[in-house]
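TODO from last week: model ADP-L-glycero-D-manno-heptose-6-epimerase.
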Amino acid sequence: MIVVTGAAGFIGSRLIHALNAEGYTYLVAVDIFDNPEKEKNLQGAKLLQRVDRRNFLAWLDQNEQEVEFIFHLGARTDTTEFDYQLLWELNTDYSKALWQKCTAYQIPLVYASSAATYGAGELGYKDEEALIPQLKPLNPYGESKNEFDKWVLQQQEAPFFWAGLKFFNVYGWGENHKGRMASVIWHAYRQIQETGRMRLFRSHHPDFKDGEQMRDFVYVEDVARVCLWLMHHRQHSGIYNLGSGKARTFRDLVTAVFSSLQLPAQIEFIDTPADIRDTYQYFTEADMGKLKGIGYPHPFTELEEGVRQYVARLESSRSAS
C-alpha cells in the first residue's frame, strides 16, 4: 500500500491521480473527508481505502506491514493562521508522531515542508541543511514547518529513506477549495471572468515596482513528478527545495492568464492587506541544484505553458458546468 495524507487536498489529490496514471491503485487516502469541494479532487481516483486523519496513526499501527511508502502532504497551510497551538498540533506534533512510526516500522517517508521557512530570504533560498536552524520564517505557518525540519535533522534514528520537500508557489488544477490561499492564477481567472481585469497587490517595497514582486511558481504536475521520482529512487535522504528554479513576476503570471484567454491584459493595483503586509515576501527563487545533484532528470514546466494548461482545464470545467 502507498499512503497519501492530505489526499483530498490540492497537491495530495494530484499525486494520487499521478500514481493512478502509473498503475498504482493500492492507495490509502488520509484526510478529513468533510469538504464537498475537496471531494471533487478525488473524482475518478482509484483508491483502496479512505482513512480519517484523526484515526490514521492507530490505523498505521495495525497495518504497517502492508504499507510500502508514505507521502505526508496533509497540513494546515493557511499562511494567515495565527493560532500557534493549532499549527503546532497539525503541522509539527502530528508530523513528529508519524516520523516516529515510520522510523519504528522502517517505512520510507516523503513529507511536505515549505518555502515559507525561508522568511524574507536573508540567507538566500539554498536548501543546505546547516542553514535550517538559522532561518527566520515570517509567520506561524512557516515556523511550524521549520520547527519540524529542525527536529528531523536532530533525530538519531530515521526511516531508511526520507525526504522533506520545501514547496514554493505551487499552482494548478485542484485548488478551488483553498479560497484566499489559492494561487494568483486561480484568482486571476475568476476575476477576469467576472470583471475583465485583474487586481494585484501594490508594492510597498522601494526595490520593487508594482506587479514586479517575484515568486518561484511551480506547476503541481511537476511537484507530483518529483514525488514519484523520489519514491522510485530511495537513495539520498534529506531536505530539498521544490520549485521551478526560476523566479517570475506577478505581472508575468497574470499576463499569461490573459494571453491564455486571448484577452488584452488589464491590471489594476491595490494595497497589500494590512494583516500580511509586514510579512510579505517580495522575492523567492528555489535553488534546485541539490535535487538535480542526486540525479533528478526532468525539466520544469515553463510558467506560460503551465498557465496555458491550467486555464484550459478551468475553461473546460466552466463550460461543462
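Done. The radius of gyration is 19 Å.
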